[in-house]
Amino acid sequence: MSEWLQVKNLEMLVSKSELNLDINRNSDILLFSCDLLNIARGRCDLVIKNNYSSSIGHINISINKPVMEGEVNFSKEKFENVLNSINKFLNINNSKKLKIILFLDKALAVNNHGVLSIDQNIKLEIVNLKLILPII
Predict the structure, then answer these.
(1) Cα(126)–Cα(83) distance, rounded to whole angstroms?
(2) Which of 55, 62, 59, 86 is nearest to 70 (CA)?
(3) Helix (H, G, I), strand (E, B) or coil at 91
(4) Is residue 43 within 8 Å of residue 111, measured between CB atoms?
(5) pTM of the predicted model, to two decimals?
C-alpha cells in the first residue's frame, strides 16, 4: 500500500546547462536540464530569464510526458548575481552538480515511491527558488 505525501517543492540536479546571450534584444537566458530528486522518473527543463516580472515564475506539468517545463524571471541584478555565483562555482569545483529547489504555491500528490499523481495538465506558480552550489 502506498502512502501519499503532499510535496510543495521540487528538488533537482542540473545535468546540462547553457547560457544564451542575445546582444541585440537584451534577452539573456539560462537553460537548465535537470533530473528530479523527489519525483520518480521525472525531468525538468528550466529557463531563467533576465526579465523582471511581478511573478517569480511558473512550472507546467503535463500528464502525457515526464518532462516538466519551468520559467523563472529575475531582475537584471539578480540574473547577474546568479551568473557570477555559477562562474565562481565552476572555477572552484566542476565535478559536483548544481542543485535547484523550486518552492510551489500548491502541493503535489506524490506516493512514497516518488510517483506523481495528476489527472490533468497543471500550471503552478513558483514562489521561491533556491540554488545550491556544492563547494567541497
Answers:
(1) 20
(2) 59
(3) helix
(4) no
(5) 0.89
CATH number at 22 reads 2.40.50
Cell numbers 534577452: residue = 27
* DSSP state letter for 78: H
39 is in which domain, residue-wise? Answer: 4-132
Beta bridge partners of 104: 126
- Provide φ and ψ at 53, rounded to 5°: -145, 160
Place of cell 502506498: 2
In tens, the pLDDT along 83-113 reads 888 888 777 766 788 999 999 999 999 998 8
CA distance 101 to 116: 17
- Reference 20, options 33, 29, 12; nearest CA is 29
Q: Is there a contact between 48 and 72 (Cβ–Cβ < 8 Å)?
A: yes
Q: What is the sign, positive or negative, of the torsion defined by CA atoms of 132, 92, 44, 60?
A: positive
- Overall domain count for the chain: 1
